Predict the structure.
Amino acid sequence: MSDLSTADFQPLEIGRESEVISRPSLSYWQDAWIRLKANRRALVSLYIVIGLLAFTLVGPMLWTVDPARQDLDQVSQPPGTDRIATVVAPYEPWFGDENLPGQGLRLAEEATTQVVRLQWDVLPGANGHRVYRNLFPVGPELAYGIPLAEILNNDTLYFEDRLDLKPGNYFYSVVALGPRGEILDEYETLEVDIERVTTVAEAIDRNLVSADADIQDGDQIALEWHPLGTDYLGRDMLARLMAGARVSLFIGIGAPFLFVLFGVFYGSVAGFMGGRADQFMMRTADFVVALPFLLFMIVFKIAFGIGPGESGVFPMLVAMVVLLWPATARLVRGQILQIREQGYIDASRLLGAKTPYLVFRHMIPNTLGVVLVTLTFAIPSAIFTEAFLSFIGMGVAPPTPSWGSMSNEGIKTMLTTPHELIFPAIFISLTVLAFNLLGDGLRDALDARMRNQE
Amino acid sequence: MSDTSSVTIEADQGFTRSAGKQLAMYALYAIAFIAFVMFVLSIAAGSAGSTATGNAIDVENNIITIALREEPPQMDAARATDASSHVVLAHVMEGLISYDLDGQPIPGVAERWEIREDGATFWLREDALWSDGEPVTAHDFVFSWRRVLNPETASQYAFILYPVKNAEAINQGDLPPETLGVRAAGDRVLEVEFERPTPYFDKLVSFLTYYPTREDFFNSTNGRYGADADMMLYNGPYVLTEWVHGSTMRWEKNELYWNKENKGFIDEIRTAYITQDINAKLNLFKDGQIADTHLLSPMLPTAMEQRWQIDRSMDGSVFYLEFNHREDRITRNWHFRRAIQLAQDPSELVYKVLKEPSYLPGVSLFPAWLNGVSESFHKEYPPVEHKMNVEKAREHLEMARQELGIDEFPPLMMLTGDTPISLLAAEYYQQLFRENLGLELRLDVQIFKQRLDKMRQGDFDIVLSGWGPDYNDVLTYGDLFSSWNLQNRGRYNSAKMDSWIRVAQSELDPQKRMDAFGEIQRLLYEDVVIIPMYERGFSFVVDPRLKDFRRRSVGPEVDYNFAYIDASGQ
Amino acid sequence: MWMYILKRLLQGVLTVWFIATATFFAMHNVPGDPLSNERAMTEITRANLEAKYGLDQPLFTQYRIFLVNLLQGDFGISFVQENREVNDIIREHFPVSAILGVLAVIFAATGGVLLGALTALYRNRLPDYIIMFLVILGISVPSFVVAALSQLTLVTLNTAVGRTLIPVAGWGTIMHMLVPALVLGLSTMAYLTRLMRSSMLEVTSSDYVRTAKSKGAPPTRIFTHHQLRNAVLPVVTVLGPAIAAITTGGFVVELVFAIPGLGRYFVEAVQQLDYTVIMGTTVFYGAFLVFMVILVDVVYGFIDPRVRLEK
């Protein structure tokens, strides 16, 4: 036990490390990022969010079609419709042709998407006629289709159909009317094949051909290309979705950003001051929380009013900020109260740190994780709110598009042209889903323990 | 889905199976529990505004089920203004003059009448009874009309009684209601004095504001007249026997009605649904829950696929762009208005944008269904043929620019309601005038009441506006743009127009009167007071077992007074 | 405890006053005129109508009258339904919304717990994938799209069967309630399923479950007594806000399914600018929510002593 000599107590060589930190030191954010990267679902969501932002911001530069431009030749076209059209002369009114050969219900000329000209002879026992158009042949139930016109005399035996003509097959019928305008059983029907056409003037107007190009009637040209089809006014869906994304994401991201920012400020002030001031501030917040949200969104919306030419985006934003900040404020206050009791704050204070330093160096950074997660989860509900308000007609004012108002329009034509609903609905769903999953990932990565953020 | 816990549970099949079984048990309990709760709730709901379900047509019991657009605010005819009240009132009340299946006037409470230059006399029938068995007398009309005009009633349709002597002065509070030019000569003769010659008075009296009210009953309701089914008396083909607010109404056949051989064939009409959602109505119809519904163009392919017999009718209303003619407005400039007029074509709007097959492109303020002297008004006085001409439009715009002495046109405010059709039209015009004239239109989309308020204040340049008829005479449109009409929201003011309207109001010779309307129609086009957009119509479907159902241009929008069930053909 | 309840109730009353004031001044800031109608009115008619509704009084007098009436539980007369009191309207329409809401909450809670447990039990197997896919749809598809699609499905179903299995719209019987309540509860159900699933997984890997297993307790007992019971706790705590969200979120469902509830009535009142109905409904809903929250808190206080101590 006593064999130790001084030789046994050699100092270590300088530079040899006794302990090695085998991994590089990571800051909180670096660590969170690594954990987020490991979460495949969150990462995919992050890419989707980035993709959506690119779609909104860069998209319009690549796809420069004006979202307001109306292509009335291609209204409510689903994507991938044939675009070849034949050039014909411009429309001139027509009042029947006395020398038209043939008998019964017949076409006066080739049927086109511009006009279908029908002529017929008086049906037996008729005091007038009704003209119908159908998508199906007339069956035993005598359902003739859409009544296009009612002519209560036997002098007019012609009709021009210009109503929303689409290429394809129609079945036209004329039905005899009795003296009081009642429908008799006598009818004639005709199957008509409609050809897609356009005029030279329209082709030039839409830049399909150059103004000096030599175009004859009967030539074939391709109409404008709409990759995602068109809406009910013939506007390009893709361009409108991009324009709509600007509104929806502006509200969806802008409003949460603002109210979270305000909530952080309010909550940290209240939490830091404590005592009476804190009590008072939190009571005020409780008042605001108690306002029924959707009802007040609607009340605010009509109270602000929307002037001419305004989109109503700004009032909606303000209303959301006014109504939604307290949740974040409460959360942040709670965090601040916790942090205030931490040892490192006391230590910092002992070392002479001033209040602003404490707030900005310690308190706010330490709540940032929670705030970020709150923000991510607030975005989907803001997007839903916008869509909901647009659905009940209290959203952004036309012609400004938003995904919500576009789906609202699309619902009306859900059966005939589902693409007008499907595309905006997909964008809403995708965005909401992406932010939800990203929020999950962030929460796990930041280990921000929060039970619910209502 | 924070599925990050790394601990794996043993893939113990046995555990999963027995736990799964347990879970299934719980699910069964839960379903039983929910079923029980729903049962309890449905009993509770029975007392909380349930909508009865029956089939659209109950052949056995002679009952039909229909949907109403909205809840009638109240059933007091003196104050009713909306379409739903009108529909119900037209079935449970009857005025002096009624109408037949084809909308032609026939005797109502009055069995005959006489209209003179200075007044009119109505001889009331003996067998017209109130639903409590008392006869309908001339006093009931006197009381009702005085009440309508009494400013305290604040009836918004009071103006329709203005042809009666002193009516306007009474309504303004200048004269007491007793001075009204109407009196009962006994129980069965009603004498009316006119303020000015009113040759169309027979058309007016079938309107609901002219319906009778019995004084003693009215007083017994304590100001709640028309608020509930038992708070009013009926004299029409049906009586309202039940009114669950916001939910259902029950109209039953009126056994005391004098004309029940010709009207009111159905034992009971139930308005079981109140919805404005046209898609919901379509689904209800498809499901056999309601007897009729109207169709918007996106629904037509479905209707064709279902092989329904689609019908059409004109709604009676005309829609138009109305300019603001006030001093400080650019739209006061004729060249400017002319430019707008030439740069558009209503047929493109109807055929390509609105796509409603029952709409007619607007050609005049006076719709196509109005009658002239002996034939349709349009046939006797064809509207000016309009042709779109963008080049000429631009010339006029240039002239307007010079006249106004401005370099560039400021953005124009286009006021519009928030209905889908008016939004569609507004968006179309915005783009159209931008492309054709380089004009910037700012859409001002407002809910109904806010739009009306802005119209009243004159806070617009162009407004998408419309007018529905109150009675079956050209004048229901003809006097809209007189300088004294409060309805003239653009404050169009022209001596020529005013003088023609005065002729149209009081001229007794039908030909001269119609000529005046012809002049008004021409002036409206030439002076570009308005730009007609479309005449509204409806495509609709009716259950094939329900016969003689009508949609009307004048009067109630849907009319079941003549309807009966005939299931034989099915 | 009683002091606590009294204090909360006082705060509640104060909050309702705040809601009423905010609503009143917001509504009186609304541009437009609730009295306007399609047919223009003479000045005297307008004046009479204004007097009837007290709109001719100075704003502060109107506010005072509004508050005094409110204290007596009177919201005034509807502007549109001239003969009906707002109280009657609420009395008639709110029970409908409430029934729909209660049913939706029950659907959401039972469905969420059961499905959540199921997905946890069959983790990473077919039932899990199917349910979680539906959950994702429930969370990310807007409610009006779901409502419209489900109505469409019903129509197709009824047409295929050839008779009305489930009515597509309307109100009154069990069958009328089924689909609207499901649609209304869907997003909450999806949320609760997720919560239940992760909560179950957490519990499954906990020490006490492992102990129970090693002790040889029967699987059903472990599942019900140790896993389900503990996993359900976090779900119960979020039910309060969920109820609030559901009862006030019925607008869309009521609109699409033509249900005569208060939500739909509110939307229609807004289109019509029916001041008294808008104010009455908002204040009523606000008060309802405030006192619901107090009730839930007090009940928790009785159940869980920890909550009581914190306050």
